[in-house]
Amino acid sequence: MHVKFCGFTQLSDIQTAAQLGADAVGLVFYPPSPRAVTIEQAQTLSAAVPAFVSVVALVVNMPKEELVKLANDVPFDILQFHGDETPEQCEQLASRVNKRWIKALRINVEQDTPDSVRAQVAQFADAGASSILLDAYHQAAYGGTGQRFDWSLIPHDSALPIVLAGGLDAQNVAETSNLPIYGVDVSGGIEVDKGKKDAAKMRAFMKAVKRDRWQNATVTDAI
Ligand SMILES: O=C(O)c1ccccc1N[C@@H]1O[C@H](COP(=O)(O)O)[C@@H](O)[C@H]1O
Q: Which GO terms describe its biological process (predicted)?
């Protein structure tokens, strides 16, 4: 199980996340978010991330010119499109800045089914996404709402590895162990305040994921 911690604004928090073994750390480039960072903040934060930890730039409907400037100014590894971007837009924007990308789909329990989610994933797979992130739909926010969705809507035979997000924390992450997912992503569940992470919550989250991972490991996994 891979772990992404998202929404960093403070240097000590991102250093702690890396020390705890997070696979990826996310920076939010969406000004309305309470977790948004400036280019200058992002430069400082990304410079503190060691080798083998990926820096993810989360954007929401960001115009091309702004994205080009972001990619020029901030070293990051992966783009996370978390808005209304179509597969074609994601493909064009990501290729313009030469980055791998993942797309967040916001699951609406009133409308979505495993088949409709699978079909959307296939479209983003065709467009070149590396992974799909599934988050809860909220009518007033693009993400970071702390809300879960009905996990039975996660398709089993997805065309892309699935990262689960939305309302995860150290208490509930073990419940994800039998889901058909590649990783988990958390923001609010490791915070004391929006954008301010809590070292104890990050540690508890990692322990819960890794404990569960090794309890369920097969011999092949463990090699
Ligand atoms: O964190 C934000 O403020 C945010 C704003 C706009 C889009 C996405 C955002 N966060 C992402 O939302 C999911 C779930 O967050 P949570 O764990 O439920 O708080 C996660 O990918 C965040 O990175």
A: L-tryptophan biosynthetic process
